[in-house]
Amino acid sequence: MSDIIQLPVVLVLNRSWQAIHVKTPAEAFCMMATGAASGLDIEPDGAMRPVLWAEWLTLPVRGHDRVVKTVRGELRVPTVIVSTNYARVPMRRRSFSGRSLWERDGGVCQYTGRPLKPGEGNIDHIVPRSRGGRTDWENCVLAHREVNSRKANKTPDEAGLKLLRKPVAPRPMPATALIRNTHGVPDWEHFLV
């Protein structure tokens, strides 16, 4: 079983063949064996076909395939599986962080409109934390350090500042947008943006 743990993850597609998740090879085998997914047999020329578990067990191992050793011999590890019953594309909310705030605000000070270099900006609480302001999408903006320091524990009105736009939480993104091919699996390139 230790062979299977060392292998890269398996891409999971929904019924419409949209990437929705990643699983370990062990989880992928369980999904295939229970009928929750079929393995996607992808030929070197790009031809693809879904294969049920019983047939997957009989597929020959090709030179470029990842394999696990079983008592019956080597078994090809799928690079991609297709969920048989799941049709949705799950949406993911972005968690609040300084990096995600930088992305939402485009690296621009939300009071001056000035583009910021890394290290020039920080998180400004519109309603200061000392006055009960929360650290969330609707109360935080990216601000130049000097502007934020001058604002201190005042509201923008009290500090004579005006926001360029009202801060809002980013819209949820499809899970596909967050899946990365960190292992460089060529078969995944067909399904990831």
Mind explaining what this structure looks like?
The chain folds into two domains: 2-91 and 174-190, no CATH class; 98-159, DNA Binding (I), subunit A (Orthogonal Bundle), CATH 1.10.30. It has seven helices and eleven strands. It has helices spanning 2-5, 25-33, 53-56, 98-104, 145-151, 156-159, 175-178; strands at residues 10-13, 19-23, 37-42, 48-51, 67-70, 73-76, 80-83, 91-92, 121-125, 140-144, 173-174. The strands form four sheets. It has a five-stranded mixed beta sheet with strand order 2-1-7-3-4. It has a two-stranded antiparallel ribbon with strand order 5-6. The radius of gyration is 24 Å and the shape is elongated. Mean pLDDT is 89; it is low at 1-6.
Shape: elongated
How many discrete structural domains?
A: 2
Query: How much helical structure, as a percent, in the residues?
Result: 10-25%
Tally of DSSP helical segments? 7
Q: What integer value in Å does the Rg equal?
A: 24 Å
Strand content: 15-25%
Strand order of the largest sheet: 2-1-7-3-4
User: Average pLDDT value?
Assistant: 89
Quantity of strands, as a count: 11
